[in-house]
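Example record used in the benchmark description.
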Amino acid sequence: MQKRTSLLLLALVSLSLVTSCDSKMVYDEYKSVPNEWHKDSITSFNFKAPDTINNYNLFVNLRNTNDYKFSNLFLIVELNYPNGKAIKDTLEYKMAAPNGEFLGSGFTDVKENKLWYRGYQSAFHFTENGDYSVDIQHAMRKNGDVNGVENLEGITDIGFRIEIVQ
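Model output (structure tokens):
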């Protein structure tokens, strides 16, 4: 009985530490990629604007394994506003160091990458109340190849995160 109480207490303390360390998080969602990420597959995230007053940082989160064969990653990210306005960006992220070691956090063969989308150069704030969406798809190509990589291996999850600037 004493062992069970100790385990329960340990679980509660661990849970409170995890939730209290993430006080900046406003929105955080991941979607799994089945086996390979097809070039025409768009991962969408829908959310309501937290407010139109505060500043926020927006991130694309990715989890990759050792099956990822590139040192960088090109993404097309589209932010859709409630009024129909859309901003589409082609972004490049560094995924590996020059020695081939993957960047990101994690002790296993899965690395988690928190990649800046908005807020890093100047403050981002939501200009409209309402429903927003973010669409993410990969735009990878091999050097000298006109056609994109049809099925991108090694990406296991795609996420989107909003943090309030404190």
